[in-house]
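Here's what a typical entry looks like (SdiA-regulated protein):
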Amino acid sequence: MKTLKYASGIIIAVFALVAIFGFMILSKADDKEVKLNYTIKQIWELPKELREVSGIAWLEDGKIASVQDEDGIIFIYDLETEKITEQIDFAEGGDYEGIAINNNDAYILRSDGTLFEVLNYLDNRKVTNSFKTGFSSKNNIETLEIDKEHQNLIVAPKDRDNKDNFKGLYRIAINSKKMEAIPMVKIDMNDKVFNNENKKAYKNFNPSDMAIHPQTGEYYVLDGKNPKLVILDKAGTIIKIYKLDKNDFAQPEGITFSPNGILYISNEAGDNEANIIEIELK
């Protein structure tokens, strides 16, 4: 009888430990999901030229470089004067989605996977070159960011990667313009934090742009279809997800940081005007 009681006690203890650890794991996953936990600090309504605003990139003196998904033009927008101060033609019309700035050079990504390099983009003698990334229109690639420390560009497919169970962040060396075949980070489309809202896993998360935090080095990846902001550490582990209210972020397409860590998100025009929003996360 004592043996039976002892065995029963062990079984109960094991189940208790399983329940505790299961709760801890579930709580850890739940901690990643934060709904509407942000403050909008300021909104800039954009002029009609930027109704289809896509990627944005921080410049000095409170200016932002941007592209839109119709014209091969870099628009320089001044946050202080709330006006476009310069328009720079770099290519014919097309679905341009991402932009990154590396000193005097600009890089623009078209949704069919073509990368444009505009050397000395602010100069009348600028030179435009184009390169293939390895992605195509079926991937619908929009994300473009620069890792200035390692002189790499980072891209990610919006719709489908090479496999449907992940979306990868891929490096492109600026000096060679060659994309690495193996992603530096794989975002698991079956991760519980995405709630598996769709029957097809690849539809759970659709990256529209990303930015590297200038102080922490973390990756802030934006989803434009189901507005949310996914934060990854340098190893690619999901730290937190911020749900973005569609009333505030109708179609978030671009994201950038100022050097002191102020976060800006651009939205295409929907029912409201296209805009850039300064947002503070909590």
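The chain has two domains: 1-31, 37-281.

More examples are in the samples folder.
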